[in-house]
Inverse folding.
């Protein structure tokens, strides 16, 4: 029986706390309830939990009754996956005619009610207007609830009205931290996140990409209230008004955020307070820029910034709250990039713009070098290919020509990299390679 399992866990709690290599620490007097080892479904574990308890869900794909439409019932508990969102999936298997979502918070939950580390996919509401039953296809937060939503992947969900991934309504202000929202759709507003009626979400270190809303806010739509958006990357969303962000009340604050590549309307609609952000087309505000971000590989959804990006060391240190001290990858904020001048605000090291922080500190191998600098082409066009080798996997690099042209990149798993320059002609000139670890090498090239 469940109460017997619970009592056994209480008696063994102190002994378990002494086991080396524990993955988390629970408060004194709190229990860890495991799914499916102790409880067959996630909701059964939530129902059995007491304030301060932790529900830990093993890797797997969870479907059906007891694993969708999950509700904390106002409890201050943590519900988390054991190993992160990649391996722990809540598949709602929903449709307009068979609506289900991942979680609903509607009992006044506070920041101590935490959901963490799940993928929620294939959620759906019915089609309709305004009422909460039509909103928030992955997560609905309503009726004065303000939980913490952390380290989640919300993808492929559909809302019949507002909030393809998350809807915040009726005075609810959750913290949405280190989350990925991609490929979600609303039938009206807020392809990623929608908030209204006195709700003010905090959106920190989030990637909001490839979401769609036919009317407003392909990424985020904020009605009649304000939100806080910090160190997020909002890209490739689609909507008619505010393809990236819509702020109807002009009360939203956006800091250290990339809003680019959104289509169908302006990147931002409304007059939010925007600062130290990279906005396509520009936007009034201190420290804002309009420059190609130089992602690692946007074609594969890798929106990390390459070393030397104009968004590196260009944010506002004062804009980073204490609970966003690591980036979306879980890596530290405030890492200096030796290739990039500090253009942001604050004492070095200065935070980057966007959801990801470019990392330094990879040690040199001592064998970094330019393997070759060769020109190829014909009498009409030449290409210079500079190949690097024997570096540390993942280390950043910059290749600079004596003409001033520079290419940036990161070494592959073999510790090699390549830079390409087009249409080069003339006499022998110099090329310099710089690695993030501090190594340098020089060579010469000639493109006849």
């Amino acid at each position: 029986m469940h109460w017997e399992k619970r009592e056994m866990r209480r008696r063994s709690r102190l002994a378990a706390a002494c086991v080396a290599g524990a993955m988390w620490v629970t408060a004194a007097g709190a229990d860890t309830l495991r799914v499916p080892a102790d409880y067959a479904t996630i909701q059964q574990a939530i129902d059995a939990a007491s304030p301060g308890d932790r529900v830990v869900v093993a890797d797997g794909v969870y479907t059906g009754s007891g694993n969708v439409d999950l509700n904390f019932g106002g409890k201050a508990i943590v519900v988390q996956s054991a190993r992160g969102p990649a391996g722990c999936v809540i598949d709602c298997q929903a449709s307009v005619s068979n609506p289900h979502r991942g979680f609903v918070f509607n009992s006044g939950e506070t920041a101590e009610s935490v959901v963490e580390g799940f993928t929620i996919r294939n959620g759906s509401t019915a089609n309709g207007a305004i009422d909460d039953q039509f909103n928030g296809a992955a997560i609905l937060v309503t009726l004065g609830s303000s939980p913490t939503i952390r380290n989640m992947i919300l993808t492929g969900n559909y809302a019949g009205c507002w909030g393809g991934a998350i809807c915040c309504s009726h005075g609810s202000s959750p913290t949405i931290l280190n989350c990925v929202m991609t490929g979600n759709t609303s039938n009206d507003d807020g392809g990623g996140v929608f908030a209204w009626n006195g709700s003010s979400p905090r959106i920190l270190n989030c990637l909001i990409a490839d979401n769609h809303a036919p009317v407003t806010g392909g990424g985020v739509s904020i009605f009649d209230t304000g939100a806080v958006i910090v160190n997020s990357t909002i890209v490739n969303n689609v909507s008619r008004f505010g393809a990236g962000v819509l702020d109807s009340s002009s009360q939203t604050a956006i800091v250290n955020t990339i809003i680019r590549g959104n289509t169908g309307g302006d990147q931002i609609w409304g007059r939010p307070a925007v600062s130290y952000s990279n906005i396509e087309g520009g936007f009034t505000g201190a420290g804002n820029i309009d420059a190609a971000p130089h992602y690692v590989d946007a074609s594969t959804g890798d929106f990390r910034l390459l070393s030397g990006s104009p968004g590196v060391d260009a944010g506002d240190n004062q804009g980073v709250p204490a609970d966003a001290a690591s980036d979306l990858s879980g890596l530290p904020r405030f890492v200096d990039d030796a290739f990039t001048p500090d253009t942001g605000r604050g004492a070095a090291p200065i935070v980057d713009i966007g959801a990801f922080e470019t990392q330094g500190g990879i040690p040199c191998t001592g064998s970094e070098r330019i393997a070759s600098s060769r020109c190829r082409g014909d009498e009409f066009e030449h290409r210079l290919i500079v190949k690097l080798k024997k570096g540390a996997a993942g280390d950043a690099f910059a290749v600079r020509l004596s003409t001033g042209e520079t290419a940036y990149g990161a070494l592959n798993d073999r510790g090699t990299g390549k830079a390409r320059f087009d249409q080069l002609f003339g006499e022998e000139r110099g090329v310099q390679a710089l690695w993030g670890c501090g190594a340098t090498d020089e060579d010469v090239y000639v493109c006849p």
